[in-house]
Design goal:
homodimer, about 300 residues, Porin
């Protein structure tokens, strides 16, 4: 278990301030980032909501990113118990910093039931063991080593099936496939597993919208996640190999829209993900200040 | 313009009770239903949110259905202005009846911008004019005439490309394609167009999850929409022909998960939709009371 993994798992250990108010810490040390990672806020908000639900496990979450998070102070999560039913419960969570909402989540919880089953088949892909690690890719592509180092700061082992977003020419189809797993033991608690899945599901996904258009999204675009949604279909350990298939369905008006699926190595569809992303061209907006803390730029006209 | 269409358009004409509190009427006469149609609540909630936003048009909404709506009294919509930014605004709306939340929506609004464009291609399908109307289908299939009459009570002209959900054998792929359009003039206001699109997007979709499993979902299953999500990609008139392509990605644990796309007749991807649905087998639960007003049944064990 790596230190970066331990630091991430610690993020899910929220401090309970009041019955429905929680405080989440920030990662320190090597895991610190210039702004708060969206997956962290979503995972902590989901944990806060889960702490207020007695029966059932989360089966879906819908969230909006409202403002860039400040990584130098904790985040407070206020939970609203909007509904407690017999087999479903629903929660709303607002993440607050500096007196302002930075993130809003709604999530639904379901007691276990039986029912009909079907699912999309898993695509036919190489096994994760037959694919290079990001460290091996960085050694072969020294130009992109810094970008792979960025990935290596995440608590995840990733094996790219399609070319990583940093090793490509313009004009690719807006699709990505990779194997991933948390690089440590998340434990047997399904809540922790689903919070960690949520954390990881916000990685790589946003770059999918850029693949047909630019060579290096980080240099040429101002990007931000606008929303993030996860539906949890089947029990899964995110610390075991998980196939993540992502596709951008459309881009227009400075926004792209991605849908994605996660499969277990045995082929079970374990989660579906959706995300809309902001994608502003920096080159054509010389008057636009792209700050680390800035979610939004100037509007047209 | 039919009376059923006029009655539906009238539903979008909310009464403003206070700055951020609105009241939505129920359809009367032939449009009355035993319980409130989910698309109506979503459309009215979106209209309430839109009435509080000065710049920008809705580009996405995420919502949960919490309790079955009572069609005999109006619905009150309370709007929370959680964020007003320079180019994005976010709203939360709670729909209330009898002192309880029946529905929760969050929506995001974006001022028009330019950006890169790509999209999924439209599938190759027959033209709507070459497909039978639901009245023509009902004449050929008298056994299912009542079900087509149900569709005819909706303010929409539908032309099924795949077999309608009432004309099929068990074991179909969980996919549906149809052309649809509002059967009256919605007008030039993009807000009204997107509210009407939201209303219509909740039709037919839920039955997609049943196609591999049962012969007539209305008789054999207790179903309900759990959530409903729409991303609006491009300007579109929902009173012009719109291709609706739906697929259930998975079903398990009494829940199915659908993703769907709407294309204009010229091939533009105008909206994406997602919905999770409850799908309980009635036959195997003889002790389960399925009431018109009941969203949830008993839990297992």
């Amino acid at each position: 278990m790596s230190r970066r993994f331990e630091a991430t798992l610690d993020l899910l250990d929220l401090e309970r301030i009041e019955v429905d108010i929680f405080r989440g810490r920030q990662p320190g040390g090597e895991a610190a980032r210039p702004r708060v990672f969206g997956g962290q806020v979503a995972a902590q908000a989901l944990m806060a909501a889960s702490c207020t639900v007695e029966a059932g496990v989360v089966h879906s979450l819908h969230s909006y990113f409202l403002r860039a998070g400040d990584p130098t102070i904790p985040i407070v999560y206020e939970v609203d118990r909007i509904r407690d039913g017999r087999s479903f419960a629903t929660r709303r969570v607002v993440a607050i910093q500096h007196g302002e909402a930075i993130f809003n989540l709604q999530a639904s919880f379901h007691v276990d039931e039986d029912g009909y089953t079907h699912q999309d088949p898993m695509p036919d892909v190489p096994a994760p063991e037959d694919l290079p690690t990001t460290a091996e890719l960085a050694a072969v592509h020294p130009d992109a080593a810094a970008r792979f180092g960025f990935i290596d700061a995440w608590p995840v082992d990733m094996r790219f099936i399609t070319d990583p977003p940093y090793l490509r020419s313009v004009g690719r189809a807006p699709e990505q496939l990779l194997w991933l797993r948390a690089d440590g033991d998340v434990g047997d608690d399904p809540v922790a597993q689903r919070c960690m899945l949520t954390f990881i599901s916000d990685m790589i996904l946003l770059s999918t919208q850029t693949l047909p258009h630019v060579g290096d999204s980080s240099a040429e675009l101002m990007m931000a996640s606008l929303d993030h949604l996860v539906w949890f279909h089947r029990p899964h350990r995110i610390d075991e190999w998980t196939l993540y298939t992502m596709r951008s369905r459309t881009a227009q008006g400075a926004r792209g829209f991605m849908t994605a699926s996660m499969f277990s190595q045995s082929g079970a569809l374990v989660a579906s993900v959706a995300q809309e992303g902001l994608m502003r061209t920096v080159a054509t907006r010389p008057d636009h200040h792209v700050g680390e803390r800035e979610l939004e730029g100037r509007t047209r006209g």
